[in-house]
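Escalation from tier 1.

The customer reports that the assembly of two entities below gives different structure tokens on two consecutive runs. Tier 1 could not reproduce it. I'm attaching the input and our single run for tier 2 to review.
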Amino acid sequence: MPVSRRTFLGGGLAAAAVAVTGTPLLAGCASDKKNSAAVNAAVKLPTYQKYGAIKPDLPGNDAVLDAFLKYPANPVKAITDKPGDGQPISFITNIPGAIPPAADNNQFWQAVNERLGSELQISMASNDEYPDKLATRIAGGDLPDIINIPPTTVQIPGLLKAKAMDLTEQLSGDGVLKYPFLANIPTVYWKGCVFNGAIYGVPVPRGMSRTTLPLYRADLLAAKGIKDPAPKNFEEFLALAQEMTAAKENKWAWTKPPLPYIRQMIGLPNQWKEEGGKFTSFYEAEGSSEALEAGRKMVEAGVVNPDTFSAKASARKQWFNGGIASFDIDSFVAWNQYYADNTAGDAFSVNMLDVPGFDGGQGKPWMGSALNNVTAFSKDSKHSVETLLKIANWMAAPFGTEEYLFRKYGLEGRHYTLNGTDPTPTKTGVVETGIGLQYISDSALALYWAGKPDVPQRQHAIQEKIADRLVYDASYGLYSETLSKDGARLTKQMTDLENEIMSGNKPVSDWAPAVKNWLSSGGEKIRGELQQAFTATSGK
Amino acid sequence: MTRTVQRRLVNGVPMPGWPMRIFKGLVLLVFCAAVIVPFVGVISTSVAPNKQINESGGLVLFPDSVNFNAYKSLFAGGVVTQALFVSVFVTVVGTLLSLTVSCLLAYALARPGFSAGRPILLVVLFSMLFSPGIIPTYLVVKGAGLLDSIWALIVPTMVSAFNVIVLRAFFMNLPNEITESARIDGAGELKTFAYIVMPLSKAVLSVIGLFYAVAYWNAFFSALLYLNDSKLWPLQLVLRTYVINDTQLGSAELGTELLPPQASIQMAILVISIVPILLVYPFLQRHFAKGVLTGAVKG
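Tier 1 run:
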């Protein structure tokens, strides 16, 4: 294709936009007036219809996830027809792990193509580099059929309006029932896919699986005579950490200061709180300095590994796995990962702490962020919208189905072996299956760990304990242009200061002026936009 | 009675006394250790057992036992092996092409009486001062039909303005008498270039070749942007994803205890990416110093 003067200049202008605003593109489109909260609220969201063929051992509810003690025998083959149309389908995504073997050297990928009835061409990038790759592909007018759009992508409404298919006709209300596994995704997750008064994507739900609380090594605590720890306030929590610290033996209670947990103890908002139409950020909420002071106190008390401020996430995980630290703050997904990485043998046991109030009573746990990403379909795709939705539907087949077993574990013999009805991944399985299918669409996470029924039991128990007290982010589903454009920069400033305070390099008294600065350099504007969006949608 | 101490002279300078020599030795030892210990740590961690890596918090200096699981994991599935071939191809072919094109351009620019020399030199200098940016370059690559082609890793970066300037400076300083005598003997421009100028330019060719080779070997960003098929990814991009993602190799939802820990994988990656350059560098080092000086003092 020759480069015309127009394309070249267009690219140059897009590049200039990136340089000047940090915004990849489509700034013009983003100002579209149709992305008003009122218009978005008027969209009829897809009907939720729970897929009933699979019965969990421990049923969940709106917040709590279904738990399975073993993989169901004879998994249901829920989709009989191949969803593809015989033509190659392209997809761009980030991948969280290592690069898997390419399709011609990857039997799992080949089997996926066979089952889909279309060759899936996947363009991958690591998590960090994905925004650059996506922005370049968008600016180059070179988007694939299926696009993984992370929630942090700037100016999503403009991008989707310019480049993505409107799926409202196919998915709104009962329309979604034609795609039973998309209908199996609870309605709340679809709220994050509505822009410009239309449904522009399919959600990749997370929610409770991303709820983040202290994970602890139950085996290490038991060795010290501590069973089922349940501190009643911050002082007891700190005492517990002190009991698990033996600096001379290179043992520390914590991998990092558990600031989000302390904030939950104090009852700070989960990102944004709404009260009578007024929005408050957790940065400015009453008690935010107290939380920082408590976190700083923990570091000062020496219960946090002193290398924490220079360590990467993988190093912290090694401390926890190696018994150098007994506590880490992370999600239910990480809980499973710890079992995957366990080198401590059969005694290895992980559990999660509930949230007490800072001075007693009950704390307020934060619900995890709703979406991993929104999956959009390119307007320029040669495939019909039905084909692409059928692909997404296939990818959302839930735990217990034959499709799920194949999608997550691959082919029996090569990618996993069966232990009873439980699939145990082989090394080849782990390497070959990581091609990013979960970012096309996904069902809600099921609590399950092959061969260890006590793990989902413990996970289900803690979820039931905290479910009634969960605090949700009031800004979810409301669009703020400033948050989209400047959110990452503003958040980084505050996170940097948090770290400085935690490490003792700056006093807690620096927090209040920083919050003022945050408000004046964008926070106040974000609040205004969220409030405006909330007012426009309230009662709808 | 005073006793004079005769000190042995080294290069005309008296050799320092024992205390000073021990002190200097200790200082040198500290510097050597600062370089060697991390290197040993990298190699040791890459072959240490999982349990020891976890218990030590990430870095092992003396492994309890040696295993090559990290290397096996990296080479299993063929991703790293394939990427290694791509990188070698890009580095070798790219360097040869770059040297050829750059030398031809620089020689032309160095010739007196080449009327278009100055405007072309300005264009070359312009590209050094003003980068076109990611998206316009992407559009050019796309327009040239190079997307998803291994040539996208070579063609867009084939000529480096800096290297052309260094080569030009070198060629300008070759004595005119040599080229003139070749011409008198009946050699044309190409023959003079190939048989007279090139053999005289081995030092500068070595250093510019090394510059190009290292740049091609280390390049990853163009592959990230231009190549969708991961089969064509060079080693640096594949290894970078292991390091950057900073997550365990296993899938969180599935889990397995079969794969080595991330630290071990990362250290194995460092070893794999360092070895080829370590193998080549000693042979080019003497040319390297000479070539750099060539560019620095002439022009």
